[in-house]
Design brief:
The structure is a homodimer of 584-residue chains.
Chain A (H helix, E strand, L loop, with lengths): L16 E14 L2 E8 L2 E8 L5 H8 L6 E10 L12 E12 L16 H6 L1 H4 L3 H23 L3 E2 L17 E3 L7 E3 L5 H9 L4 E9 L11 E10 L3 H20 L7 E4 H8 L13 E2 L1 H4 L5 H5 L2 E7 L7 H12 L9 E5 L5 E3 L7 H11 L6 E7 L1 H18 L10 E5 L4 E4 L4 E4 L14 H4 L8 E6 L2 E8 L4 H10 L4 H14 L7 E7 H9 L29 H6 L2 E3 L5
Parallel strand pairs in A: 3-5, 6-9, 11-17
Antiparallel strand pairs in A: 1-2, 1-4, 2-3, 4-5, 7-8, 9-10, 10-22, 12-13, 13-16, 14-15, 14-16, 17-20, 18-19, 20-21, 21-22
Helix pairs in contact in A: 4-6, 4-16, 14-15
Chain lengths: 584, 584
């Protein structure tokens, strides 16, 4: 149907008779000439028809073409008079001898250009038209590239790609499962996997040694902007490895992707313990594109009569380099910002380290220039810098300061989307206390091994037990996480006990795994990367939705195909279920 | 945890101090020597310990190792006295200096060797142990190789891999859907895709031009041995193509896979129309590893007083080369075989073309040597051959003869698993009549385009309309099928009408697709390969189940994890459904 795509003809093709096919991007009609921009995935090629030298019927046909018509055009490649060096095909045009309309098109509901006038809702409903825009399609081409390169690396490292089942068993741990009623087994349900965790561990028991899969996973959670009910993971597991082996292998993967997809040589991947991350950045996924480390000021700021600080559990400051020129208005806005309910700070103390060496703070009444100089020393501040200080309850203050640090990084232009700062955060706590259910939850998952030296603390101080667990963080976004797993029945049982499972519950849900551990399970560990998010990071976007071909909206609906939907009574009957909507 | 795998040490590694880890395959203890075969995915390495030169404690530890214990062993690589040239590591052994038991193992429920004593049920329950057997793991390694090579080819051909959604919309056409209740949208359900058909067509409307995906699909059908509720497809679609372009592209894929996975240069892929396949082989997926084409005998066998033939609608014969020596007993068995209810023939006529040139048949009473010689001419039979003849109603007779042909091929050893005969079957009928529902069904699917010249027959003789549809067949197995699609609203609507949809039903189910066709849909077509089956063919197996890591049994159960299972009342309530098992 075509001899060439719309992206490939060059001046060296001049005089060739060609056939192209694609979409009409634009028709211009001026001074007896008609130009048609013909578009496909590969590019745009200009067609030209001239009054006089072209027959009238063909001219009329060309003039009547609408936007997004699908046509086939035959003609000769000729050199353009006015070259367009912005287009790869800009040196040539096609002098058209025949046009066939393969399919006409209605006027699209929004403009199919990089800049469109379509709102979110409309573009979701006509996603197939939105995907026609170059900027959108390119995101999915990036995703394709990421998938191919991931597989190339993993295959090269001797990992075997194994497809694990989608119809599995519902487990009460973690997020809510999507379930699937079984027709053949009335009253019983499959669940869709939140991850292939137990299967990949069983593959290690099977001696597969190195497993990976790029796999759809499912969580029936209330959706936020960056969550989808179905999402994709790069899921991996290795046997006979230490944590160090895993970090090196997957640092290699990320390095390979940056090199081969973006042409970037990634710098060294830093490492930081969870405790350090919390202490210096107030969260477990610090954005290292900028410094602004927390400095603790208790020793220099207490005992000077400022009661707020004197009563605070923790006083911490950050130093915003070169920001001493912030105006009063800017600083007031910053103060209002930290006091917003989402942040929740009581107030903000700032100290300007003026370029003349003087210090000006909101607490000059309590602190002398020497006192403030001592703060500056702790924070590493120099003339020209702005120091921002928060205080209060330790946990809350770190959290607030983390938000403030990110905002300052943003405001000062330090979060450059073309810069990538990868980081391993290691030594996560094994358990976290859940106030609501009054019990411990597994911070990673129940299969994560505690550090051997911390096991005795399981009885005495469970919250302090560290896990062999690690996250990879890039630019403040967690892109992957994993752990060295438990591989013996006794430890796994102990773990379930500490998570509040009765022996019976543990056996019913995970008996097959614990039994497998008794038949020669090797030490093993693994990791899973959030593939949608990884693509978004590579694409320089904050939203994973852009990197999913057919995403769902915040109510889990696909508005294009109008799903979910009701099903026939007959179908429900076959599945031995009934709809029972609770009246409120 | 290891310096080498159990498959990599060679004589050139002699004197190296190494650490290996793996499973104890076998322990032998003889004349003061202990040998341990240590196994991992990569191979087996022999460990050796000698009384006297090894300390007592280590000897005792080695002697006490059980089968399938997971151990780590340190020692020195030494040349073996008695080399084993059947093992890649057979020139060396490890003189052990330390052993650590990483995990003991209970005695496995069946032997972990290529030949096992475990029955199907037991091996399914302990699938993780079955997967430990080399012969089983190698099947999944083949599958891995097939996936990687498929992607390599498709990527090289400019196809973009796009993940389409798993949570989609239930449609009444085709097999039964698995459904997923939506918690957020009470009373509504997602369906799991039977194929990504509509999504890949929308991607063509989006201008993706070439799409592929290796994707899980789902069908809630009653299971047979070679069906699974979840299965994998290589799913593909292309724009601006003719059928010829598609056949060439995917012949290329299959050729690439044979070359790169099996080292086989595939011969030319033959082409045959559906009509020819039915006429000469009695089915739409002929096994071309052997000839035995049907010969029609009506003109030579009627009118000789044999009333069975005289009354038959069709008389067909096949010629089994070199089988004239079949004994009376064998021929009686063959006659019994065709009369079994599964085959349903009334009887079997045979003619031996003896090596002396004489002809001996079961119908000598009615046919002279000359008559039988005329049969032989039609069938291409020569002295030494056996002719087998069936007669009756045309459709049934072709079907019976197809079965008989396959059986003869099998019995005569003509269905060699190492020989591959690929074939395109083209020009399938568009519709097939369903006696039960008394209406036409789409033979491929409702999106398949009729041949343009046959469209008028839609009104007059729908069953005779041919489709732009094709199957790839290898060795009598359909491994893939596809079609050129309808790409305009009017034809799609006409098609739905002929399939018995009301306009309203068509709009409700597929309105989004028909609307998409109005916004500039390019001509397009595609194909889907059954990936599990393709792997089985490549592996020389009849069962797809062997090529699936965690298959389900014939009741759709995963007996290893015990799924499906009941779920909590709480969970049902959240999902706004109730279990309602019909009492019979």
């Amino acid at each position: 149907m075509r001899t060439h795509t719309c992206g490939e003809l060059r001046i060296s093709d001049a005089n060739k008779e060609v056939t192209l096919a694609g979409w009409v991007q634009k028709v211009r009609n001026k001074g007896g000439l008609i130009w048609v921009d013909l578009r496909d995935r590969y590019g745009v090629t200009q067609l030209i028809l001239e009054e006089g030298s072209t027959d009238k019927q063909l001219l009329d046909k060309a003039a009547s073409l609408g936007r997004e018509f699908v046509i086939q055009a035959k003609g000769k490649v000729v050199e353009r008079a006015a070259k367009n060096d912005k287009m790869p095909t800009g040196d040539i045009e096609i002098r058209v001898s025949a046009i066939e309309v393969l399919n006409p098109a209605k006027v699209p509901p929004f403009i199919i250009e990089d800049e469109t006038d379509g709102g979110d809702e409309l573009r979701m409903k006509y996603r197939y038209l939105d995907l026609r825009r170059n900027v959108v399609r390119e995101k999915l081409q990036l995703r394709h590239r990421m998938m191919q390169e991931t597989r190339k690396y993993m295959d090269g490292q001797n990992f075997i790609e194994v497809e694990t089942p989608v119809l599995i068993k519902s487990t009460p741990e973690g997020a809510r499962d999507f379930v699937v009623p079984s027709r053949v087994n009335p009253g019983e349900f499959y669940a869709l996997p939140q991850s292939p965790q137990t299967f990949k561990q069983l593959l290690m028991v099977s001696g597969f040694d190195r497993y990976f899969q790029i796999v759809k996973c499912f969580r029936d959670e209330d959706l936020r902007a960056d969550r989808q009910p179905e999402f994709t993971q790069i899921d991996c597991e290795m046997s006979f490895v230490t944590q160090e082996d895993i970090l090196n292998t997957f640092e290699g993967l990320v390095r390979h992707l940056f090199r081969n997809v973006k042409g970037i040589e990634l710098e060294e991947v830093k490492r930081m313990t969870f405790a350090e991350a919390m202490k210096f950045y107030g969260n477990d996924k610090p954005d290292l594109r900028f410094d602004m480390k927390f400095a603790e000021l208790n020793s220099v700021a207490k005992g000077k009569g400022f009661s707020i600080f004197d009563q605070a559990e923790l006083i911490i400051g950050i130093c915003a380099k070169g920001a001493s020129e912030y105006t009063r208005k800017q600083l007031d806005e910053l103060t209002d910002w930290v006091k917003r309910p989402q942040i929740g700070a009581k107030g903000l103390v700032y100290v300007k380290f003026n370029t003349d060496g003087s210090l000006k703070s909101t607490v000059d009444k309590f602190y002398s220039q020497e006192d403030l100089k001592a703060w500056a020393d702790v924070m590493g501040a120099e003339p020209g810098d702005l120091m921002l200080v928060l205080s209060g309850d330790e946990k809350a203050t770190r959290k607030q300061m983390s938000e403030l640090r990110l905002k300052m990084g943003e405001d000062l232009g330090l979060r450059d989307k073309s810069v990538y700062k990868p980081l391993w955060v290691v030594d996560f706590p094994l358990l976290e206390w859940d106030e609501e259910t009054k019990r411990f939850h597994a911070m990673h998952h129940p299969f994560t091994s505690p550090k051997r030296e911390d096991i005795p603390m399981l009885e005495t101080d469970p919250g302090a037990v560290r896990a062999n667990a690690y996250d990879m963080v890039i630019n403040g976004v967690e892109i992957g996480g994993g752990s060295i797993r438990i591989h013996d029945r006794a430890t796994q049982q102990l773990m379930f006990k500490h998570l509040g499972f009765t022996d019976e519950e543990a056996q019913k849900q995970f008996g097959f795994l614990m039994e497998a551990f008794e038949y020669g399970a090797p030490p093993h560990g693994g990791i899973a990367f959030g593939f949608d998010r990884l693509c978004a990071i590579f694409g320089g976007s904050d939203s994973i939705r852009d990197y999913i071909a057919f995403p769902k909206n915040n109510s889990g609906r696909d508005v294009m195909i109008d799903s979910p939907s009701t099903i026939a009574e007959e179908q429900l009957k076959e599945l031995s279920i009934q709809v029972a909507i609770a009246t409120k």
